[in-house]
Every structure is written in C-alpha cells, then in structure tokens.
Amino acid sequence: MSLLQVIDITHAYASSRLFRRMQRQTAVLSGVSLSIEHGQCLGLLGTSGAGKSTLGKVILGLEKPQKGQVLFQGIDLYHADTTARKRLRRDLQVVFQDCYSSVNPRMTVEQIIAEPLQNYEILSTQELKRTIGELLERVGLNPDHSRKYPHQFSGGQLQRINIARAIALKPKLIVLDEAVSSLDMVTQAHILSLLKELKSSFGLSYLFITHDIKAAYSISDSLAFMEKGEIVERMDDKSQLLSSNHAAVKSLVGSVLSEHPRNRTLKA
C-alpha cells in the first residue's frame, strides 16, 4: 500500500464579479492523481499558477477538495474522525517557502520546536530540552541558540529550524512547499544535502514542490509535472527527464542556465 494516494482531486475557487452577486468557479485542480511510496521523494514541478501549492494544501488537509480522495496510510483524510485525523497529522508535516512567516516572531527557537512535541508527547522539562538540543544539532545548528528569536537568524538558519520542527515527531511524510526557493544557491545546496541526509537517516518520504528543476532532480526519486491544474507527465525514474517530449517539461529543462556564464545562451 502506498504511503500517500491522491485520487482524482478536483478543486476550484469561487471568485465574485465586480458589482454583481454572481460568483464563478475558477478551476485550480482537475482530476489530479498521484502516489508516494514509503521512503521516496516525489518532485512536483510546474510554473507559477500550475496548482502545485494548492495540491499541497489539499494533501495537508488545509483545503478541502470538491471531488476526490486523499488517502494517507490507507485512511481518507477528509472522512476520518477527529482521533484518526490527529494521529495522521502527527505523521504528516510541512516546511513552507517563507521561513519567517512560518514561525511566531515572539517565540524562541526552543518554543518553536517544542510546540509539536508538547502537543503529542509527554516529556519532562529536561527531556524536552535534551530533545530540542539534539534536533538543533541534527540540522547543523548549535543547541545554545535555543534561547534566540527568529529575527536573530539568517534565512538558511531559520529554515533549518523549521526543518527541525518538522522532523521532531519523526513523521512519515513531509511536504516541502518551495522550501529552498527563497534561499541563495549556496544555502540551497546545504539545505538539500541536509534533507537528503535526514531522508536516509529517518526513512522519511517527501513531496518536494518546486519550480526549480535542478533542485528537484537533486533530491527526488521520481518526478511529476503539473500544468493548468493537471498532472501532464509522471516519471518513476528521474533519468527519463531529458527524453521527455512534453512541451511543459521541455520548457522547464530549457530554462536551466549553464553553471558558467560563458556557456549561457539567450533564447527567444
């Protein structure tokens, strides 16, 4: 059984017309289906407005679809009772693109990482402090930073803190929604390396949502491409990337610049 199964998801947003009461539905997702296996990373790619982040919200239980099912560990996320949903929520975590808006600026690092642990675990004060220190070390940060506030960190450091919070409960699946897109190239490389190491150590599965084909290729086992709310191509083996004939895939591949400026060319 797949860890995650998304079956025929359709979703639309209502938008009102100016000076009229009539509302029209703007389709965002149309019959989207995909699956993620245990210990695998699926890279979900597409240009802005393709529906990637909306699909991520549907999978996280934040945006109820108009049609379709989201089965996580075999349980329908939108038809499970409160107890089951809480249990599933423990195993399903997220890291968003904007690392600063993802945390409460008035909370210390210790409080930020402690939040999920206090919701699901019964730990003494000493056990909680030790666990937070171990998590900070695991993501390459100093445990002594636990008393600092978000504004005292760089974007890359704060994203590491968000990752520490996401892995605190040892989840089965983490949705990474453009988690490295706002970081510089060097920091991106460090975060991707960290994510790969954590995936191996904890047996994690990822849904890696991005428009960056190089980042997706670096971390993913398989790839899926979205265009206008639909999955237009799925590759179980990412090595198939360069052989794709789909226009959306070729456009993303063609947008990648050479590492050295001398080898870059401008395309009409």
Helix content: 25-40%
CATH architecture of the largest domain: 3-Layer(aba) Sandwich
Name the helix and strand elements from N-terminus to C-terminus, one letter apiece: EEEHEEHEHHHEHEHEEH
Largest sheet: 6 strands, mixed
Low-confidence stretches: 264-268
CATH class of the largest domain: Alpha Beta
- CATH fold descriptor of the largest domain: Rossmann fold
Counted beta strands: 10
Structural class: alpha/beta
Report the CATH superfamily of the largest domain: P-loop containing nucleotide triphosphate hydrolases
Whole-angstrom Rg: 20 Å
Number of helices: 8
- The N- and C-terminal alpha carbons lie at a distance of 46 Å
Principal-axes geometry comes out as globular
Q: How are strands sequenced across the largest beta sheet?
A: 6-7-8-3-9-10
GO molecular function, one term: ATP binding
Keywords: ATP-binding, Ion transport, Nickel, Nickel transport, Nucleotide-binding, Transport
Domain ABC transporter: 4-253
Protein name: Nickel import ATP-binding protein NikE
